[in-house]
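Lab notebook page, bench 4
Experiment: in silico fold of construct C2
Operator: M.H.
Input chain length: 153 residues
Purpose: comparison with the prior construct
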Amino acid sequence: MESTKGLAPARLRGLPSWLLSQTALRAQRLGTSAFADAGASRSQYSLLAALEEFGPGSQAALGRRLGIDRSDMVALVRELADRKLIKRTADPSDSRRNVITITPVGVRRLEKLDGVVADVQDALLAPLSPRERSQLIRLLTRIIDRPTTVNSD
């Protein structure tokens, strides 16, 4: 994404929602490219991060937590299990469910991918000082954490 000056109408450039969308598109492009170069994906990173932070969980619950469609989750779990990054076992209390656990190999892979993510953040936020980055994170977190509704009356 180049500078927004002159590329879009001033009416759009003055909308935080438009600016956030444009920033999100840039972040997605940078992340997708960096993860591809590392032989990974955002979904793989998200699943490994969730398992490392929250511990083992059912495949369905992890999919809901991460917003990953059920069929995509099945493929993701299969791929990461084949690569020995996670372990899939039958839930002892319900054999229809799988419990997913990160493996030591998965933890090491997550740590390497943390470096990829850090590089993407640095590239995306290069124009901002460390203080501005912290402020941006605080402000975006406030927006994300607050439920929103739109009145269209």
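Observations: The mean pLDDT is 92. Strands lie at 57-58, 86-91, 94-102.
Next step: discuss at group meeting.
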